[in-house]
Structure formats: C-alpha cells, structure tokens
Amino acid sequence: MRYLALILAFLICFNCLFAQNGAVSIKVNASKPIGKMNPFWSFFGYDEANYTTRKDGQKLLTELQHLSPVPVYIRTHNLLTSKGKSDGPDLKWSFTNAYKEDKNGHPVYNWIILDSIIDTYIQRGMKPLMEIGFMPKDLSSHPEPYEHKWSTGGNLWTGWTYPPKDYNKWRELLYQWVKHSVARYGKKEVTTWLWEVWNEPNISYWSGTFDEYCKLYDYAADGLKKACPECTIGGPHSTSPRDDKAFNFLTKFIKHCLHGKNYATGKTGTPLQYIGFHAKGSPEIVNGHIRMNMGVQLKDIQRGFEAVNSFPELKNIPVIIGECDPEGCAACSETRDPQYGYRNGTMYSSYTAAFFARIYDLMDQYKINLRGAVSWSFEFEDQDWFASFRDLATHGIDKPILNVFRMFGLMGGERIPVHTDNGLNATDIISNNSSTANDINAIACKNQNSVYVMVWNFNEEDISDSSSLVTLTIDGIGKNKVLIHHYRVDKQFSNSFEKWKALRKPQQVSEAQFNELEKAGQLQLFTSPAWKKVDNRKVDLTFVLPDHAVSLIQLTW
Predict the structure, then answer these.
(1) What's the CATH architecture for 38-410?
(2) Could you tell me the pTM of the whole model?
(3) Which end of the chain is more exposed for a tag (fewer CB within 10 A), N or C?
C-alpha cells in the first residue's frame, strides 16, 4: 500500500506539472506530401562586410555552410563604400575602397578588399547575394560629410547615401566590377550569384528621390548585363510592406521595371528577375517584460506576397525576403534597447522555429516561389560577451539560435501534414497578434529513408516558465523499426548562454571556459539514439517540452 500511495502521489504531481498548458497531441502523416521543404532559410546577411575576413567571421561562415545542404547565400552592405578617416570598421560601417578618381576625374578601380570578402565565400562553397552599394565617396553627389560613427552617435545618413554625380560612371563601375568577377571566378560561378541595387531605398538609406532610385537601378542593371547577360538582378529590397508607403514604393518600382521607360537605355522595361522586400517584427516592453509580436513580421510577408501576386505577369517569379528578422536593428544592444534582450537565449531560437514554419504556410497560401529569407544576423567584433546584439555567435561561440538553423539543415525532402490540438497557422497569428497563449506546434518532412519533425513551445512573452507534455504520433511509416534521434534546444541543451551564466558571466574567458562554451554551443541530443518498433504503421512518442524549447525528432530506417 505504501508503494501504491507513492506511485499515486507521483502521478498527481506529474499531472500538476502540466496543468498550466496541458498535454498537446501532435499528429503527423508521412504518407501525404504537401510540398517541397525548400531551404529558403539558408540566406544570411550583415552590415559590416569587413568582419567577413576576421577570425571569428571566417569560423562562423564555415559553420553556416556546414549546416546547410545547399550553398548558403550571403548579403552584405557596404561593398562599394569608401574608407573614411578611421582605420577599421565600426557598427553598421565598413568599406572596400573599390572606386576612386584620380586628379583628372578618371576612375581608378581597386578590388583587393572586395576580392578578399568574396574569396572567403567562394572558398567555402557559398554564394554572394551581391548588394550594389553604397555610393563611393568620389562618385557621390554630396560627398561631405561621408563617414558616420554609429557607436558614438551623430548623423548616420551621410555622403554614402546620395545618388551618383555621374550615372555613366556608375554604370561603368558596375560593368568593370562584373567583368572583373567573371575574370576572377569564371562565368559559370558568377551566373549562380544574385545581384541587387542598394538597400531599403524607400527610407534614409537613399537620399535621392524615387525616380533617382529607378535611374540608379536602371544604370546598374545595364552595366551588369553588358558584362554578364546571364547574371540575375532584382530588387528593390524595400522596407516592411505592411506600411502603405513601403507597399506603394514596392509596387511602383515593379511597375517601373515592367512598363516604365528605362533611364539607361531609353527602352521600355528594366531587368527584374526576382522581387526583394524586407520583413521585420516589433518587440516591445509590456509591464516590464518582452513581448515579441510575431504577427507584425508575418503581416509584412503576407503584404509582400500580395504585392507580387497583384502582377499576373510575375507569376512564379522568385521572391527573396532580403532581411527577415524579429526587429530592425542588429547593431542595437540590449543596453540601448531592453526589448532586444530576447536574443541570447531560447526566446530567439523558439521564435525562429515557429516563425519560419509559418512562412511555409504563407508560401503555400499565396503560391509564391520563395527563393530565400535572409536572417540579418552574423557576429560583432570587439563587443562584450553576450551583449544581446542580433548575432549568431559571440566571440566565436555559437548562440542557441544557430542550433535551430542546424535543425533546419537536417530537414529536407517533402513537407508532410501536421495536425495539432488548437494549432495556429500564419493567418491565425496575424489576426490575433496580441495572444500570449503558448504556441506548441510542429513542421515535418520526409525523404527516402527519414522523417523529421520539428516541435516548438513558443510564447510571445518572456514571463512564462512552465512545460507541456507532448504526445507525437507519426503515421504512414512503412517499416518495422525506426532509429530515433531527438535533438533539443532549451535552457539545458545546445545553449552556450546558460553555460556562460553558470560560469558567472565572465568577460575574460579562460581557454578551459572557452572550450566548455564552445561545446555547449553545439546542437545536442536530448536522449540517446534508440530503436523503436513501428506498430500498425505508427510511431508514438511522448516527451516534455519546456517554454521556448525546440525539439527535432529524426526517424530513420
């Protein structure tokens, strides 16, 4: 009787543990594919192009390519920016010195720094999403002041944001750049790259008018196509289209490319081979806690897809979300903006898992050919450890967010349907963005000999600290036995931030501590691999999923 009482007490406590969120049933059908598991997530970007060749930058780039089954595309600002008075890059600032003019006003091209950046990508099997910008000092129509200092304040929108003083020289710069690229890397390689003109030209990144931006684009496209007719160019990489002004800028630019007069050639139309726009969320502090507002970012994508679909002639054109992030300032730390305190831990990783799954929802709903979604997050040099910048690693140590990308990198093949108790789709989240109920759901896929199910427990706020019991049923398995690998990102697994806190948050890290942090930053198994019998084509699994945790279940045979 004593043992029976203990067992009964345990069961009561077990039920109490999950009373807040309850048990959640997730059912996956492996026999009904619904679409490709398109790896649109394999795109990354950052402002500071010079960080590419730094030690930690090179390490992170290697890791990004190693986690992806396809070539990773990298988009960076400042590939044409001139060196200022300071010796090195700063937050939101870097340079290549690709273009200068001699005392007679003749162009002088110098590709050394730019080549070192692109070489770093090519050596790893990566590809550039080549951003054509910003304006070289000697070509700027308003060159002084030129350099800005983000870290010390002052005017950010200086000479690098202005139109060229000579559009023919701008076109020739592009012609020479592409011609040099073909000579250095070969035409077969260069034709796999993607090109675009400027960044967010509908806001202060561009100090010209809309018509001047169209002229900038037309002349750049003409120079590129003269050097490489097979190369791919698109844009305009404008800001969040949930805003009517940004939406109208995007559609007006598309109309110009389709039907307007080309400023460079005088003909009708300009090459537009993919559509690019940005999607950003808007976290805020509510009653002293962070609230993420995922619906805001999903609304951007929904409106961008609506803009593309409003042009029948663009049916099936590739779409690239050129920056796709929970908010809009990677170089702003938690110290400056407390709402960015989500970035070090599992709130960021669980948000990303839940959010990217909903991009697939919208992609299916609007029948969009989504080529890429760029996570504008990389690494920052000479900053404090875990300073809550929007980055993937700190001082060469991977943060939890990077392990969700590792999970996505394991997934491939065909997506398969998921049914979850009270599960939300993208439209639900957009229409009910204020909800703070736990979002426990999954995305699944299969290939010839594997099934993958990514399950997350996300909450829009950082105040919840409970767990939920998940019962996962995977139907349609035509084998007698499967080998199960269960990977996890939570406060205990795959989490260098929690390890760093356990080490008492050192800013001077010893070699032994670094090794501990590096190990903690890798994707880890939640349980040992195990074989499980398939019963009536089904596999049943039960596990506990804490708030802001992500699990990846891999079944192989």
Answers:
(1) Alpha-Beta Barrel (3.20)
(2) 0.95
(3) N
